[in-house]
Amino acid sequence: MARMIPLRAVHSKSPGELDVFVRLRDDPLTSDWIVLHSLDIATHLKKISGEADFVVIIPNLGVLFLEVKACRKLRRESGVWYLGSQSGDVRGPFKQAAEAMHSLRDKLAKDKPYLSRILFWSGVIFTHVPFREKSVEWHQWQVVDSTAMRSGSIGRILRNILERAREHVLVVNNNSGWLLPGSREPYSEQCEEIADFFRPDFEFFQDYKSVAAGIEAELRHFTEEQIGCLDAMEANPRVVFKGPAGTGKTVLALESANRSCNAGRSVLLLCYNKFLGSKLISECKNRGYTFQVKTLHSHMLETAKLKHVAQHADSDFWVNELPRLAVEQMLCDENEAFVFDELIIDEAQDILRGEYLDFLDLSVSGGLSAGKWKMFGDFEKQAIYESANLSLKEFYDRLASDPAQYSLRINCRNTPSIASLAEMLGGLAPGYKRVLRPYDGIEPQFSYYKTDSEQIETIEQALSDLFAIGITGRDIVILSPRNDDHSAAAKIKSESWRDRIRPYGQVEGGGYIRYCSISAFKGLESSAVIVTDLDHLNVQALEDLIYVGVTRSLHRLILVMNESIKSKLLPAANK
C-alpha cells in the first residue's frame, strides 16, 4: 500500500479524487510509492498559484503528476474544454497537468540540481467517462479513462505511463544526456528527498490558550446551531432525540430544561453518570438555572429516603432493590415533591431498564405515557452499562403511543479527523450528515506496545509531547476500558509524572492530569484524550468503548494499543 501524504483525503470533495486516493493507497503494487495528494503550487508557471491533484513518486521510474477529472460528460469546442457543468477552459486537463509538473520540476532542479535527471511526467485520469480522442497535444498512453480504471491495478496503469514516457524521452532526446539509459533514479532516498522538498514536515505551535479559546468559541457557535431542533419539536409533549456522540445532546438537554423552567413548569434534568451529573450541576449554577439536576441513582436515593448506603453495595442493589424501594416510597407517601411537570433525561440510553422506568413513570405528572418529557440519547452505540437492558422499541411498547422522534446527525463537537475515526470504529450507519468544526490539520495518533512497561513509557512520552506544545494537565484526560485501580495510568510511578496524575473527580483544579474509565467519562469531553489499555479484551465490546472514548476529544487524540489487536481493531486505520 502506498504511503499517502496526508493519510486521509480530508480536503477533497471530488468523488473521482477520493476513488483514486483509495485505489492508490490500497493497491499492493504501490507498496513502496509515495503519493502527495492536493499539492498546492505557489510558484506556478502560468498562474499566481496552482494545484496538483496527485504527485506520485515511484522508485526507479520517476515522478508522475496526475490531473483527475470526475465529470460525467466533456467536450472541446473551438479550442475550449467544457467538463461537466464547469465553464469553458482553454488550457484543458492535459495542459493543467503539464504546467503543474513543469512548475515544480523547475523549482526542484533550481534548488537541487543533482535531482534534475529524474524523469518527471504528467497524465490525466477521467474517472467517469471513456476518452479515446487522439491529438498531437497528448500521448494516448498519458490517458487513464473510465474503461482503464475498471480494467485492473492502478499501480500497473501508472507504471506503464512512466515506462512509456521513459522510452519516449530516450528516443526523442537521445543526445541530451539528462536521462541516462538504464537509470534507476529516483532511488528510495531520492524519493524521500523529493517528497520532503514538495511537502516538508514542520512544526510551529500556536499558544495553547488561543487554541483553547478558539475551540470554545467554535463549540459555542456550532452547538447554538443545533438548538433549532428544539423549536421544531416544541409542540410535542414527548420527544426522543436520537443521535451519535458529538451531536450536542447534552447542550440541548440543558437548553430544553431551562426553556421548560422559564415556562413555569417544575423540571427535573436527569442523567446516569455521576461525573456528568456533577458537570450539569456546575453548568446550571454558573448560568443561574433554577431547575433541579440529579443523577438517576441520587434521585432514587433521595426519594427512598436512604441517607446511608453500604459502602460495597452490589449491582443488584442499584439496579433492582433501590428502584423498588423508591417506587414503594412514592406509592406510600404520594410525595408531590418528587413528581415533576416535566422530565428531561440526558444519556437516556443508560436508563432503559424496566425497574428504572417504573420509577420514572411515577416521577412525572401523567406518567411516561401521558406526561411531558424529552429524552436525549445515543441508542445505537453508547449503551455500555449492563444495567440498561431494553431496546428503544421495547421502551415504546410500554407506552400508550409512540413519542415523537428527532434524529441528530450533525457533529458539532469533534474535528473531521476524529469524527471520521469514530464513524469507522462505531460502524455508524448512517454516519454523520455533517461535521461543523473545520479540519485543524491534526490527525489522531496511534501508538503501539507489546508489554505493560512499554505501554507506560508510551503514555509518558505522549504526555511529554502534549506538554511540549503548551497543553496543560487540566486539558488532558487518560481513559481506559478498565476501572481506575487497574488502568495503566494508575501504574505510572516515574518521578516526572506520578505526582501530576490523579483519578478523575478526586481533586478539582491544581492543573492535574486526570484519569478514569471510559464508562465513567461518558457525556464529558476534554481537549486532549489518551485512550489506553487497548489489548486482548473482547473486540466488539472494546470497539464500543473506544468509540465512546474517541469522541470525548476536542483537539488531540492518542490511542495506545497492544500490537496483538492492531490488525483486528483498526484495519482501515493502518492502511
Q: Summarize the biggest pleated sheet.
A: 6 strands, mixed
How are the strands ordered across the major sheet?
1-2-3-4-7-8
Gross geometry: elongated
Can you give the mean pLDDT? 88
What do you see in this structure?
The structure is a single chain. This protein is α/β, with parallel strands linked by helices and 575 residues long. The chain folds into three domains: 196 residues, no CATH class; 176 residues, Rossmann fold; 137 residues, Rossmann fold (3-Layer(aba) Sandwich). 37% of the residues lie in helices and 20% in strands. The protein contains 18 helices and 22 strands. It has a six-stranded mixed sheet. Helix 15 links the parallel strand 15 and strand 16. The longest helix is centred in the first third of the chain and has 20 residues.
Throw out a few tags for this protein:
Rossmann fold, single chain, alpha/beta, 575 residues, 6-stranded parallel beta sheet, 37% helix
Task: Write the SSE topology.
Layout: E1 3-5, H1 15-26, E2 34-41, E3 50-58, E4 62-69, E5 74-77, E6 80-83, H2 92-111, E7 120-126, E8 143-144, H3 146-151, H4 154-172, H5 188-198, H6 208-226, H7 228-232, E9 238-242, H8 249-262, E10 267-271, H9 274-287, E11 292-295, H10 296-303, H11 315-333, E12 342-346, H12 354-363, H13 367-370, E13 372-377, H14 392-397, E14 404-407, E15 410-411, H15 416-426, E16 434-435, E17 445-449, H16 452-468, E18 476-480, E19 501-503, E20 513-517, E21 526-534, H17 539-550, E22 553-562, H18 566-569
Helix pairs in contact: 10-11, 11-12, 15-17
